[in-house]
TrEMBL record:
Belongs to the helicase family. PriA subfamily. Zn(2+) 2 binds at residues 561, 564, 579, 582. This is Replication restart protein PriA. Component of the replication restart primosome. Initiates the restart of stalled replication forks, which reloads the replicative helicase on sites other than the origin of replication. Recognizes and binds to abandoned replication forks and remodels them to uncover a helicase loading site. Promotes assembly of the primosome at these replication forks. It comes from Hymenobacter lapidarius. InterPro entries: DEAD/DEAH_box_helicase_dom, Helicase_ATP-bd, Helicase_C-like, P-loop_NTPase, PriA, PriA_3primeBD, PriA_3primeBD_sf, PriA_C. Zn(2+) 1 binds at residues 552, 555, 592, 595. Residues 322-489 form the Helicase ATP-binding domain. Keywords: ATP-binding, DNA replication, DNA-binding, Helicase, Hydrolase, Isomerase, Metal-binding, Nucleotide-binding, Primosome, Zinc. It catalyses: ATP + H2O = ADP + phosphate + H(+); Couples ATP hydrolysis with the unwinding of duplex DNA by translocating in the 3'-5' direction. Binds 2 zinc ions per subunit. One of its GO terms (biological process) is double-strand break repair.
Length: 847
């Protein structure tokens, strides 16, 4: 799409009065600097910092971008192009956000364009390839807004809502034959005629409910009586009519008929005939119509208040937190699993709202929002917003705008919620603050939402509460040093005690031949006894799929991913081999392609295999699985958790998802199937992660006054970490771990930046990594630079990988200088002609 600029030439004005403004804009691209555009003179009063504008970038591409600054200084290196259009007359990105985004770009060694690209929902990012489509609500006959001639042209080109036709911005420009058409699109959006989407996969699909109502000519009392007489020989249809009139008393208020009732209320009733309902619709007695409803359950629920009283222990903890907030900006709430931290959070949120501030409540997993939102909704009603990646883009925009307008004063969300446009935060709660799920890995910015939340609170003068039963070592270190406040809850809520933890030796069980597939007799027997008491079980296996490895028993052939240096895992449900790194999949083989043998078998086990085996061994049990494969659909988390809460299922098999903060009253047994795979991992945080995972999943057992039990299957019960888990002794675990970190120079005593060099050619990748290492050593010293070396998985998505680890002093000035040196070293590599295709990735504070 090309634009000419003469249409915005400024009108004549006295030279003495003329002020030429320029705007520095943030393009949603990985560019190292901001670009400056000229503001058309007649639009000087329209430009707002934080608002979106349309600009031409390159020869043909047009993009929406964010205005970062307005000034009168023309760029010296190039002639500034004019801004094409202004989208907003008020900021969509606030000043506190811009300050935070600049910090993120600087700290995480990326560009502010990459931060903006990650922060904004795609419906707020327009480009020449953005698309428009008719809104499902739009009807020419019923529209309350008149359409201009240009708007009529667009609507005609889009056809009808049934056609589902879409136009790109480029096609709209060509259709109208004018260079400036964004105002036309904006007007159509305001009139609810069209909606925007960025990719075909993002097309807006509204939630539609089918409803029925009595045809308007039957609403009068006389007509209803006549209708009864007509249907007297048709009892099934008469039953439907009676049911409708019970639900919608039209004889008392005929206007109540207008809204009708959901068709499902009649067709799904076991006492009514669905065919009778359809016959009444066909004969014109009932009218069927569609209603678009909100996807947000919080808008559909009543705002009934949840009243509770804090226990003495909770009250003491709350008061200690408030006292610490008087002296420090950050406080750690270290409470054992099941101690009732959520009630304390709710009480603190209430106080924050009473003072007129906003609250952000961060959770590490979407799965947790299903339980937490229900509780918070009963307290805060429509003031509560929810933000996570399972929402459609249009829903995310709705929450974004709701925060801007003040409609949502409390937001519950996962890590991306730190990007929302808060400007009056008074409290941030980071629940399960130790979780690695707060870390973004790909693409840039590779941020940790916990650290971003701390800086966000600092910029806005808010307080931050970090909560966990197993705090990150770095967090507890800051609390012990006195930089953070520290509050402890050492007992579970109510009468519940900590669960009994039992270690079971799998090596001994195999020698005694008492293993049943991957279950020891101890664990399987305890599962049966728990189900016999009508209680529930959670089983944890830290690997999804049916089997991690498929191999030929004769020649040893193992199917490998074509893009990554990993073996393919077998997924029985889809009967395919799948790569868990890039998504590559292939059909399961029955004959070895290397030697022709049919002795191709699966080895190892994942959650799918556990589920399959249990269904055979425990046919009476209702078993559900919760892992990445079963939770891809939008509402699958809520469905699985809801079924388990309502005890429709009594055994939940899952990966890490089941370890994080879920609260089930009837769970009395937790089984950890294979503890060894978690402990033995080549990473300095391996023992910390293992301890956290064991304690967290154990915490799901024995709530609401019931004594729980945890069985951990391991081939090495003598591992030191198990003793600390059994005694729930975080302090002892921390003391041991912090000594190891100090001795070997790991966080919190040093900062780590991991450099990854990626190249499609292995030799050039190694060459680039060696050159980068040499440049880093020259600038930072040999002691600070480790590597390069190929990681355990050395090829992902057809890129060969080399890693370099940089250890740096924690001083702010030293860190800033070191990052400058790292960037300079990266530039040296990029300037080598033969290495230009190498991708250099800096990950600050890797997890």
């Amino acid at each position: 799409m090309s634009f000419t600029l003469d249409f915005i030439s400024p009108t004549a004005a006295p030279a003495a009065d003329r002020v030429t403004l320029f705007a520095d804009v943030i393009l949603p691209l990985p560019l190292p600097r901001l670009y400056t555009y000229r503001v058309p003179y007649e639009l000087n009063d329209n430009v707002v910092v934080g608002g979106r504008v349309i600009v031409q970038f390159g020869a043909k591409k047009t993009l929406s971008c964010i205005v970062a600054a307005v000034h009168e200084q023309a760029p010296k290196e190039y002639q500034a192009k004019y801004i094409l259009e202004f989208i907003d007359d008020a900021p969509v990105v606030t000043q506190p956000q811009l300050k935070l985004f600049r910090w993120m770009a600087d700290y995480y060694m990326c560009t502010i364009g990459e931060v903006i690209n990650a922060a904004l929902p795609s419906a707020l990012k327009l480009s020449s390839e953005s698309r428009i489509q008719l809104h499902p609500r739009f009807s020419r006959e019923e529209s309350e807004y008149p359409l201009s001639q240009q708007e009529e042209v667009i609507v005609d080109a889009l056809g009808t809502t049934e056609d589902g036709k879409a136009l790109t911005f480029t096609e709209v420009g060509e259709l109208l034959g004018i260079p400036s058409f964004h105002k036309v699109i904006k007007s159509l959006m305001h009139k609810d005629v069209i909606f925007l989407f960025e990719h075909t996969a993002d097309k807006y699909s509204p939630k539609v409910v089918k409803k029925v109502r009595l045809a308007h000519h039957f609403v009068s009392e006389a007509s209803i009586e006549q209708l009864f007489n007509t249907l007297s020989s048709k009892p099934k249809q008469l039953d439907v009519l009676m049911k409708y009139l019970q639900r919608v008393p039209v004889h008392q208020n005929e206007y109540s008929n207008q809204n009708g009732i959901e068709k499902a209320a009649l067709t799904s009733s076991p006492h009514l005939s669905a065919s009778a309902v359809n016959t009444l619709i066909k004969n014109g007695v009932l009218e069927q119509f569609d209603v678009i409803v909100s996807r947000f359950p919080l808008e559909d629920e009543p705002t009934a208040q949840l009243h509770f009283t804090l226990t003495d222990a909770q009250t003491t903890a709350r008061d200690e937190i408030m006292a610490h907030f008087g002296e420090r900006e950050i406080t750690l709430l270290h409470g054992v699993t099941g101690a009732g931290k959520t009630e304390i959070y709710i009480d603190l949120i209430r106080k924050a709202l009473e003072s007129g501030g906003q609250v952000l409540y961060l959770l590490p997993e979407i799965a947790l929002t299903a339980q937490i939102v229900t509780r918070l909704l009963r307290v805060f009603g429509s003031r509560l917003g929810v933000y996570h990646s399972k929402f459609s883009d249009n829903e995310r925009v709705e929450v974004w705008n709701g925060v801007l307008s003040g409609r949502f004063q409390v937001v519950v969300g996962v890590r991306s919620a730190v990007f929302l446009p808060f400007d009056n935060l008074s409290l941030i709660i980071v629940d399960e603050e130790h979780e690695s799920s707060y870390k973004q890995y790909e693409p840039a910015p590779r941020y940790n939402a916990r650290e971003v939340a701390l800086m966000m609170a600092n910029f806005q003068g808010a307080k931050t509460l970090l909560g966990s039963a197993t705090p990150a070592v770095e967090t507890y270190y800051q609390a012990k040093r006195g930089r953070y406040g520290l509050v402890s809850l050492t007992k579970r809520f109510g009468e519940a005690g900590m669960p009994d933890i039992e270690l079971v030796d799998t090596r001994k069980a195999r020698e005694q031949k008492t293993m049943h597939n991957h279950f020891t007799a101890d664990l399987l027997g305890e599962v049966e006894r728990t189900l016999g008491r009508q209680e529930q079980v959670i089983l944890f296996q830290n690997r999804r799929g049916y089997a991690p490895v498929v191999a030929c028993q004769d020649c040893g052939w193992i199917p490998k991913c074509t893009n990554c240096a990993v073996s393919l895992s077998y997924h029985k449900h889809s009967h395919e081999l799948r790569c868990h790194y890039c998504g590559y999949h292939d059909s399961m083989v029955s004959k070895c392609p290397a030697c022709g043998s049919r002795a191709v078998k699966t080895q190892g086990f994942g959650t799918e295999k556990i589920e399959d085996d249990l269904k055979i061994m425990l046919p009476q049990a209702n078993i559900q699985r919760m892992d990445l494969d079963t939770t891809r659909a939008k509402n699958s988390y809520q469905q699985i958790i809801g079924d388990f809460e309502q005890q429709k299922t009594n055994v939940l098999v899952g990966t890490q998802m089941v370890t994080k903060g879920l609260d089930f009253a009837n769970v009395s047994l937790v089984g950890i199937i294979n503890a060894d795979s978690i402990i033995h991992y080549p990473d300095f945080r391996a023992h910390e992660r293992a301890y956290q995972m064991f304690v967290q999943v154990s915490g799901r057992a024995g709530r609401k006054g019931k004594k729980g039990k945890v069985i951990i299957q391991t081939s090495d019960p003598t591992q030191v970490i198990f003793d600390k888990v059994i005694r729930n002794d975080y302090a002892e675990f921390y003391n041991y771990e912090i000594m190891q970190r100090q001795e070997h120079g790991y966080p919190p005593f040093m900062r780590i930046i991991k450099m990854t060099v990626k190249h499609v050619e292995q030799g050039l990748g190694e060459q680039a990594a060696i050159l980068l290492t040499q440049e880093l050593v020259e600038r930072l010293g040999r002691a600070a630079v480790l590597g390069p070396e190929a990681p355990y998985i050395f090829r992902i998505r057809n890129f060969y990988l080399q890693e370099i680890t940089i250890k740096l002093d924690r001083a702010h000035t030293a860190l800033k200088w070191a990052k400058e040196q790292i960037c300079a070293a990266m530039d040296v590599v990029k300037d080598q002609k033969e290495l230009k295709q190498a991708r250099l990735v800096a990950d600050v504070d890797p997890m």
